[in-house]
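To: structure subgroup
Subject: Chain for Friday's discussion

All,

I'm putting the inputs and outputs inline so they're searchable in the archive.
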Amino acid sequence: METRTDARVRVEGRVGRITLTRPQALNAVNQTIVNTMTAALLDWADDDAIGLVLVDAEGEKAFSAGGDLAYIYQHAKAGDTRTPNRFWRDEYRLNALISRYPKPYVAMMDGIVMGGGVGISAHGTHRIVTDGSMVAMPECSVGLVTDVGGSWLLARAPGQIGAYLGLTGYRMTGEDAIHAGFADVYVHRARLDSLKTALVSTGDVSAVDHFRAPPPPSSLAARQQIIDATFSASTLSEIIDRLRADASKFANGSIDAISKGSPLSALMILSTIRNATSIEIALRNEYRFVSRVLEHGDFLEGIRAIVIDKDRKPVWRHKDIASVPAELVATMRREAEGGDLDLMTWENAR
């Protein structure tokens, strides 16, 4: 049986397949996709006829460029914060489900993979990148935090790579994503269709190994030493001071990238990464922030500047990190109103 909304769900042989079908929106993750994926994964989890799950997307540009920011903006501008918060809650529960899924979960991370797209791919067991992949967590630029469990992924990246990626929104190639721990296997884009055919025909995830190629050298890995030296400082202010003292092209570019983002978001991103001791804690802390961001943060202004008006000139509430009140940071860290995200109760309610 096949269903098709904004995601096409079907069973082919022993493979449960999910294909995102919003190429015109760069396969942005919306409530329909979250609901569709969640239902399919729960149906297949205990089905002995399903050997693995394969997730890909229509279109050549993007696996998924992130969450549907325009959808959130429209509801929030109309005074409705409950709908966006429900979306985030359900999305994060899906991310947790993927991270714990009992069967191989193969994600084809070809094209643009950002934000919400990372959440439905990089928590899987088999994460495929290509010579056409571009992976990033650019939430600081829109006044959010690295969410969808992204702070957990960043916390586990080698050295201080996670802090660097979260604060600057650096766009990783496929080989960079493997170095950072966001992906596992490099496959040439021209061979992706053949890989999918092999997975469907065999129902065996080991077919991936026959298409694996050695990735090119990672430019991110080449910068590991300077990233570790500068981003290991204990506070964001000290990180910026170290970058200024270094004064290299890399350091100046990093300062420029950080300065373009929301000061509140930058402070909270570093905090969420460094406190992400598990994916459950990461998602809890991320939800605490996003559940308040429409009222207290810069997210609406970030979406306006980047997505709606596209002037790329956001006016943040605070001019720099020194201007962000300590009490606001404390507020964004508190237990979410109505209670923290409950992952275990939801996952067990089948």
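Points worth raising on Friday:
The chain has a mean pLDDT of 95.
The radius of gyration is 20 Å.

D.
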